[in-house]
Amino acid sequence: MHRRRRIAWVESPEGTGALEAGAGRQRSGGSSRSSSREEGKEQGELPLRVREEAEKVRSEDPQPLLRGIFEIQKKSCDVVLSAQRLKWSPIQPERPVGGASIVLQHKEEYVEMKDVFSVKLKRRRFVGQQKGGVLLGITVFVCLKKEGNKLKDSTIHLSNMSEDHCHLWFRYLTEIVNGFPNRPKSLKVFVNPNSHRKEAARLYYEQVAPLFKLADIRTDVIVTEYEGHALALLKECDLKPFHGVVCVGGDGTVSEAANGLLLRAQMDAGRDRKDTLAPARAPLPLGIIPAGDTINIKNATK
């Protein structure tokens, strides 16, 4: 017969944890008492430092909003959500040591909620099935910063087949992500089809557009037809429905978009377009997706 494994996790009081494990080992034999006392003398201030560090971590750690159990990478995890972080640590069974049981503790992992750009419910569906399906959990889409100025999208799968549990977490996660200020919901996109050996449009639709869709960002895409097209449109089109302008191309496309936004700002402010001493602020931020033969702008922004 196999003994049933017990799954347990605890929130240890400050300064315990390793001390409890040490106490268990001390009770297993009297010969270790003298060496334990000597170690205690050498590390007399350790418990105080541990308590101070724990207090510092608690003071910086935001108030949790939700706590629950999900499977992450095939491991049951204790997951905690706050307005700033989503953190998790594997749950391990108790292991007896010297007549006492201790809880195996693993390194806690986390992502900052400001790096999350989308949250979706994950379902298993049959081929051709558009709605419904078996709920598998929640997928969190994260944008992580790599070396230099590069960003890399990644996913975290929180597996749990409870509808109520997942819908509660999904609602909280979505509210936090949507609550961050200055996140665009609608973008005006200009794509230069001649850039990047005439592959700029393919690059946008295959690599960039899916990320915008995941983030629930609406886009109005203009594929430019001639040199100066983006500049002409930005000087005249209604920009009020948009939260930003994105250009896909090389230095020429970027220059057109930047000049168009700045000229538009001068015109809306009733200023001379040639007045460079007191320029008006551009009405919208400009995003650049390098896709040209010359990429000096990209190199300058590193």
From TrEMBL:
- Which spans does this entry mark as compositional bias, Low complexity? 20-34
SUPFAM superfamilies in alphabetical order: NAD kinase/diacylglycerol kinase-like (SSF111331)
Domain (DAGKc) spans 182-302
A Gene Ontology cellular-component term: membrane
Give the species: Varanus komodoensis
Q: Where is the composition biased (Basic and acidic residues)?
A: 35-59
One GO MF annotation is:
lipid kinase activity
**Biological processes annotated in GO:** sphingolipid metabolic process
Quick one: where's region Disordered? Answer: 1-59
Name of this chain's protein: DAGKc domain-containing protein
InterPro entries recorded for this chain? ATP-NAD_kinase_N, CERK_PH, Diacylglycerol_kinase_cat_dom, Lipid_Phosphate_FormReg, NAD/diacylglycerol_kinase_sf
